[in-house]
Amino acid sequence: NYDKTAIDFGSISDLNLDQVIAYEWTPVQLQGKYLTEQELMVRNRPIAGQPGFLQIIPFQLSTGELVIVERGWIPADSDLAPAVSMTPGSEPKILTARVRLSELTPNRDSPDGFATSIHLESLNELLGTSVEQQFYLRLISESPGEPSSPQPLRKPTLDEGNHLSYAVQWILFALMGFFALFWAIRQEREYRRIEKYPNYVPRSVRNRKRTDADVEDELLDAKN
Could you say which of 13, 74, 134, 209 has the lowest number of CB atoms within 10 Å? Predict the structure, then answer.
């Protein structure tokens, strides 16, 4: 999806979570304006060991819809505050951005103007907004542009090692599931045989190595 041609935002704005998963990383185009007074900095986003923030701002489309836009990365200064201010203008803009799914960890308590996660439900509570989409957008470009903008995040990489690792994990999960099912079926058959045949000796008992105590018990039973 990453390198596809941008599609219209309206074609995916109403999708539920199950549907929008198939569009992750897909570029979309939309028109509207930033609600700059609701800008937030997402904390604890280091890059290459350097502390920094992700800048997120609600974007209001010309249709009235709201969507969260992540504009990029801003480095931290020596006091671990944003090193520069890169708030965009509030004039109408045309954006091209990629679809990203909501992060899973809800926001924790933070100072005003900051967040800890791009978790959409808790961002709505934090901002007092009503973003209904099951996704946010990662900015690619905007027109008109700004004199300075946050650093775009790098394209995600998935090398052959990752693919092989995922394949091995799925094979192991499948094998574990198969053996668990085999064991459950075998145990169920044993239980049914025990119920049906009072003198049936379970396989685990038959396969158990006889001890001296077992031999002694058998001799005593024979005498009695």
Answer: 209
